[in-house]
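Title: Prediction job returns without error message
Component: structure pipeline
Severity: low
Priority: P3
Assignee: unassigned

Description:
Job completed but the reporter wants confirmation the result is attached to the right record. Sequence as submitted:
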Amino acid sequence: MTKHEAKAEKKEELEREQGQSKQPRNKKSKRIQLSKTQRVNLRIISAILFGWILLCIGIFIYSPPTRDVRVTTQQSTYIQEAGQAPVYIRENEESVDERSDWTDFKISFLASAVEDTIFFIVIGGVIAIATLRKPEEEHIDNRIGFLFKDDSEGAANAKKYAKKAIEKLACYSEKSNVRIRVISYNEELDAFKVQTDWEFHLHNLYNNCAYKDDDTFHVDIETDNVGTKDGIQGEMLKIRTITTDGKKSKLSDITTSHLDDPEPIKGEKFNKQVGIRIESDEQCIYEVSFWMWCKSDVQYHQWVRRYTKNYVVEVHNSKDCEDIQICTQKPYNKTSDSSKTPTDANFKLLKAGEINEIYSGEMTPEQDMWVILKRQQKNS
């Protein structure tokens, strides 16, 4: 099989996997969670409705004493015999009837109660629907509207800026591993050949929509502007994402390679856009691997684009490389003066084949850290 055929087969397999991942999923219904104010309002409405029902039941059950009412009924009889004038005979009949004024009240109250109950149900239903509206279930634009009520022309641009800022923060990294592998030292360039592996475990903070932000999903590399005669200062080896729904029952993940072949790094800066989409019930492992020439005794910076709960940075000295010295600056605020030029006392020896974990802890986009690689001075 030729190289092109292998690529074509790999591409077809990737498209099939992506096609399966786009199929609709059976999402479980989520239980509605009410706020404190909504719960209080619901209790008040329930108490009023319950009291109204008890009142109606009590009225219809209650039977007050009755009183005797004498009723006189008048009947007229018309009699006419042959050849005589008609005669009208009126007869009065009296009867005793038990009657209560409460019966008439019940009938009147029933008509009014039915009307009021229908009105209460209609109006109460409308109010309930309005108050049960949850901002966290709305689109991001509506969520911004809940937070910022100003509808002036100037506020519209501010809301757009706030939306963009919030979208960048809607993804965090549970754990990120950075491995800096010192492969060799080039005496002519006075630089180390360093391979860096990034592994970010990403989580979507949205509860009902996908996370996708192109501003935070791209690879940015700043070189020391040192390389071989052909102008190559390094090489991008791997850009890969592995998405999973985070469930233990998941048998297969969707793996996407964003790099067909190693890509040379030339110039002071290297930038490559990476399109990543993380659904609300998904997690993503974002992997980047590259090597480049790092100038000896020059700061090699490491930073993040999103909040990282556990940021682990390790320096590996290859067995094939000589002993080196390393100096590290733990995360500091970029606007402060914490980053100072190190002295020789700050350097530590890292022998061939050794691994040194230089940092493990939280990291935010406002922070920066660096490591300096330096050749071990040999005694004459």
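Comment from assignee: result matches the submitted record. The chain has three domains: 39-62+69-131, 137-165, 172-375.
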